[in-house]
């Protein structure tokens, strides 16, 4: 843990901030929106609230938090840039990204579900209907990821990571092939 200069927290859901107490205990500053800090409810001198579209630095990285759309207090995505010209976009748990990002070299973005798979699962009863509304208003679909990628200049992108795939409403192989075909880039799914 001593090699970490900081920790970025996108929002307060447990699967995104579960280890915050351990991270703080290890002496690592945690950066998040004021809304996320309040929702987490931990008061600690290493919790650093940051504002959307106001850059800050951690080590040699300049970080620009930006607002995303999710069903929580004040979620963020992050654009990280270093002096070597690397630009990493990280965005998860959002159904839409309203910004364009010039000069990206790496993309880590949620690709939670496919509308087609979700609808098939609802029809067959594998996924309850109420889940559809929540997914549509809180998570990035394959279709919206494609639109986001088309809207951005990918000429410098070296790799794309698809994150946060749904266990039942996604298809890892299909998603990877679709994004590779669309972008011509290397695609990873952790």
Q: How many helices?
A: 7
The average pLDDT value, as a whole number, equals 92
Helix content: 25-40%
Question: Topology as H/E string?
Answer: EHHEHEEEEEEHHHEHE
- Cα shape: globular
How would a crystallographer describe the biggest sheet?
7 strands, mixed
Low-confidence stretches: none
What is Rg?
17 Å
The total count of strands amounts to 10
Class by alpha and beta content:
alpha/beta
Neighbour order of strands in the largest sheet: 4-5-6-7-8-9-10
Q: Note the beta-strand portion.
A: 15-25%
Distance between the termini: 21 Å
Could you characterize what this model shows?
Residues 6-99 form the Metallo-beta-lactamase domain. This is Metallo-beta-lactamase domain-containing protein. It comes from Bacillus spizizenii (strain DSM 15029 / JCM 12233 / NBRC 101239 / NRRL B-23049 / TU-B-10) (Bacillus subtilis subsp. spizizenii). The chain has 190 residues and is α/β, with parallel strands linked by helices. The protein has a domain at 85-188. The chain has seven helices and ten strands. The protein has helices at 14-17, 20-25, 34-40, 115-124, 129-136, 142-151, 172-183, and strands spanning 7-8, 30-32, 47-49, 56-58, 61-67, 76-82, 87-91, 106-110, 159-163, 186-188. The strands form two sheets. A seven-stranded mixed beta sheet has the order 4-5-6-7-8-9-10, with helices on one face. Helix 3 (34-40) links the parallel strand 2 (30-32) and strand 3. Helix 6 (142-151) packs parallel to helix 7. The longest helix has 12 residues, at 172-183. The chain is globular.
